[in-house]
């Protein structure tokens, strides 16, 4: 399929007001798309179906599913898309937003110092009016700009339109192999400068690693935790640890989701206290920001080589079930002709409210660059 007919089909789906998702996973040149045939709002609670899932921050609200059997699927393989680059404009942050965020962060720090809370991720919403509100055009710019991210554009007429470029894998399961990452700590990327991580950033990322490792232990036979690396996500740097494990035969996908989501990278620690604080004190409803999205229980054909001599038929096909979910970060919701961009950061006892504000300003740039 050519890239133009691939995108024409998506444009047509959008014009018909029907649900779709178009996305590309990190470090590959495949763009995939699912077009749902009707405008039904299918949901999942059990995560046993097959399809594409879009889950909110608060899992007490249900997750939306594009069921495989009601969708047409297509993909293309391409390195870059033909789309004009936009002039970068200066985005001057709003003074009121700044005061409000600093107040929220200060409240978080006070709570950490006086209660059991160790870390809480606090966020805000930045609103910007759009010159060109065609989501497919924005998606194309994201695909060209952020190769290390899961870039996506998701639409359902009964829910809304979300676009993002997330650097964070929640987890993926391929057969029995479970891979996840701990991503936290942020600094601005500066060409030719070596990064120095502070104790605050090292600790906030370690909280995530410890949480993930502890939570997946009951479901796994073996866990391998890598050293901490610095990784780039657009104009930012983060600390990242890879955690690879083998799950037990009886482990259910839903139990792994409940154990991991939301991780302290987007919620805090302890989870319940942090979530309560967020739901009570943040000045808006996160909806799908810091939720997760991705492929659910898809069958994947792989060929395996036995590598034994004297075996005539030494390659055999293995069908594995795979799911991969990304945390919905560096994302925005398009409503009428405005973009609502969501940005947050991890707060610990050592946080500086002014710096936390600047971090959210830098994070907002990921989306502001493409609209
Ligand atoms: C909550 C966000 O980022 C998370 C992921 C990486 C680094 C983070 C941080 O340094 O605070 C956050 O934990 C966001 O981008 O809105």
UniProtKB/TrEMBL annotation:
Pfam families: Chorismate_bind. Residues 100-363 form the Chorismate-utilising enzyme C-terminal domain. PANTHER family: ISOCHORISMATE SYNTHASE ENTC. It comes from the Bacteria. This is Isochorismate synthase. SUPFAM superfamilies: ADC synthase (SSF56322).
């Amino acid at each position: 399929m050519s890239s133009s007919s691939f995108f024409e089909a998506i444009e047509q789906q959008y014009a018909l007001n029907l649900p779709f998702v178009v996305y590309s996973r990190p470090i590959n040149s495949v763009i995939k798309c699912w077009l749902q045939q009707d405008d039904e709002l299918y949901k999942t609670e059990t995560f046993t179906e097959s399809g594409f899932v879009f889950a909110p921050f608060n899992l007490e609200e249900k997750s939306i599913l594009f069921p495989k059997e009601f969708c047409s699927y297509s993909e293309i393989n391409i390195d870059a898309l033909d789309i004009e680059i936009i002039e970068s404009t200066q985005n001057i942050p709003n003074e009121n937003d700044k005061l409000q965020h600093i107040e929220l962060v200060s409240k978080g720090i006070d709570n950490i110092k006086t209660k059991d809370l160790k870390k809480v991720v606090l966020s805000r919403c930045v609103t910007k009016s759009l010159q060109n509100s065609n989501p497919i055009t924005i998606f194309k710019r994201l695909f060209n700009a952020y190769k290390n991210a899961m870039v996506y554009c998701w639409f359902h007429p009964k829910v809304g339109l979300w676009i993002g470029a997330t650097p964070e894998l929640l987890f993926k399961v391929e057969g029995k192999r479970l891979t996840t990452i701990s991503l936290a700590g942020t600094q601005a990327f500066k060409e030719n400068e070596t990064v120095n991580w502070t104790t605050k950033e090292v600790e906030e990322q370690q909280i995530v690693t410890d949480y993930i490792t502890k939570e997946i232990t009951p479901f796994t036979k073996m866990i391998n935790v890598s050293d901490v690396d610095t990784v780039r996500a657009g104009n930012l740097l983060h600390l990242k640890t890879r955690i690879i494990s083998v799950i037990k035969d009886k482990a259910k996908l839903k139990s792994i989701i409940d154990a991991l989501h939301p991780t302290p990278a987007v919620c805090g620690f302890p989870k319940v206290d942090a979530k309560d604080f967020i739901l009570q004190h943040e000045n808006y409803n996160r909806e799908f920001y810091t939720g997760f999205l991705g492929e659910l229980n898809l069958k994947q054909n792989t060929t395996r080589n036995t590598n034994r001599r004297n075996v005539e038929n030494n390659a055999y096909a293995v069908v594995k079930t795979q799911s991969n979910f990304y945390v919905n970060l560096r994302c925005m919701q398009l409503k009428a002709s405005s973009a609502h961009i969501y940005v947050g950061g991890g707060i610990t006892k050592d946080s500086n409210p002014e710096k936390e504000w600047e971090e959210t300003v830098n994070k907002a740039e990921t989306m502001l660059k493409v609209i």
